[in-house]
Amino acid sequence: xxxINLTYIVPLEELDQHMADHVKYLHKYYDKNIFIASGRKxxxxxxxxxxxxxxxETIEQIIKEDPFxxxxxxxxxxxxxxxxxxxxxxxxxxx
Length: 95
Prior knowledge:
The chain is an alpha+beta fold. The chain has a domain at about 1-10 and about 20-50. Helices cover about 35% and strands about 25% of the residues. It has a four-stranded antiparallel sheet, covered by helices on one side. A hairpin with a 5-residue loop joins strand 2 and strand 3 (about 45-50). The longest helix is centred in the N-terminal third of the chain and has 13 residues, at about 20-30.
């Protein structure tokens, strides 16, 4: 599992011009069962995406499709972690 940590590097007004395309991008990877949760940080300085993939390299390639990446609107940091415990309802997703 991976935590994708976005930190916005432009004013929110500029970022919001690309929000609809960013949401389409998110839905693409939700449909592929790669993204499992996402949302804005509080305060709104960036966002978090939880993702499932075979490798960090796969996540790096997926990030390159994000309009926030291609338009240089956010910095992306990736943390990989091994799920040792999780809610029982996630068993089918994480198996």
